[in-house]
Amino acid sequence: MAVPLPLAGKTALVTGATSGIGLVTARELACLGARVLLVGRDAARAEQAQADIQLAAGPEAHVHIKRFDLSLIRNVQSLADELLRELNQLDILVNNAGIMPGAFTLTEEGHELSWATNHLAPYALTNLLLPLLDAAGRARVVTVSSMAHWVGEIEANREVRNSPDKYSWLTAYADSKLANILFTQELAHRLDLTGITANCLHPGMVNTGLIRADTSTVMKALWSMGRPFMITPEQGARTSVYLASAPEVGGISGRYFANCRPARSSNRAQNRTEAARLWRISAEETGIE
Ligand SMILES: NC(=O)c1ccc[n+]([C@@H]2O[C@H](COP(=O)([O-])OP(=O)(O)OC[C@H]3O[C@@H](n4cnc5c(N)ncnc54)[C@H](OP(=O)(O)O)[C@@H]3O)[C@@H](O)[C@H]2O)c1
Fold it and tell me: Where in the sequence is the signal peptide annotated (predicted)?
């Protein structure tokens, strides 16, 4: 008789699963037996990802596409509504989708693009999916942050992040990644004793498509110089997969990891008052408590 796969019977949702770290994370979770829902905004890339994962995980694997642009809160709400209608429970949520825009961009809803995609979307999606995570009993929320959070300073940078004249892509990106850690800390605190865990991670410097046509020229140059030293998406996805599936971290919550081990985050990322304040701001900005 075949031995059941470790994640058989579990459902995982991975955002930004059409390329890079998210694609490999979704593939590995499917190979471990999870039914995987891929969130992507581009139809062709999502279908290609689905085909790649199906090929790796075999014909019995359940791989589904959810096509949503998560930079808008109303889309996050629609995705959550759909999932709440279709699923009975959600065992694993990987908040992976991320962007590093080179220029100041405001979404239709008036949020700076990296703040909206990298922080507000995970905040809103996780909160809206809490009934499904709760129904799973011991669900895990994994959020992909970055070591770039070390230079983040959310309150002090508010003006730089939100003004076209003063905008710095690095500041905006770093602030959103600092927000990922503070969000995880506050979420873990609020979910204490529920059985749902929340952790976040730095994946390493990974050779992915994070650098796009609109990324700043400086960053493009730095990225291409750094490419030979970067790790592969397979290596970059290891900590996400570990936090989403390894039995030994099933009871750990509110931590920041790198290389599949707890890691040190900046002092600002460990500030409980900041974490609580960010939660209040995020609730105001998204309209979701
Ligand atoms: N690469 C690194 O060295 C590194 C280091 C630290 C942290 N990270 C973090 O790792 C995560 C994954 O990035 P990656 O390096 O794998 O880059 P990537 O290959 O560009 O993957 C990013 C994914 O996010 C999706 N995405 C972006 N904006 C979206 C939106 N509005 N709605 C839905 N999906 C959206 C992208 O979809 P499209 O294909 O449609 O754009 C893509 O699937 C990010 O959170 C990033 O900040 C990366």
Answer: none
The correct CATH number of 11-286 out of 3.40.50.720, 1.10.340.30, 3.30.750.24, 3.40.50.1460 is: 3.40.50.720
Cα distance between residue 13 and residue 30, in whole Å: 11
Q: Is the CB of 132 under 6 A from ligand 1?
A: no
* SS3 of 184-197: HHHHHHHCCCCCCE
- Cα gap 272→223, rounded to integer Å: 33
Burial class (CB in 10 A: 0-12, 13-18, 19+), 201: buried
Residue whose entry in the numeric block shows the structure tokens 């809490």: 130
DSSP code of 199?
E
> Which is the closest atom of ligand 1 to the Cα of 145?
7
Query: What pTM, to 2 d.p., does this model score?
Result: 0.97
205 lines ligand 1 (CB under 6 A): yes
- pLDDT per residue as tens digits for the range 103-120: 899 999 999 999 999 999
- Please identify, by atom number, the ligand 1 atom nearest to the C-alpha of residue 180: 45
27 burial level (CB within 10 Å; 0-12, 13-18, 19+): buried
Alpha helices in the chain (DSSP H): 20-31, 43-57, 73-86, 113-114, 121-128, 130-135, 158-162, 169-190, 217-226, 233-236, 238-245, 272-286
Which residues are known catalytic residues? 173
pLDDT tens digits, one per residue of 51-70: 999 999 999 999 999 999 99
Ligand 1 pocket, residue 210 CB under 6 Å: yes
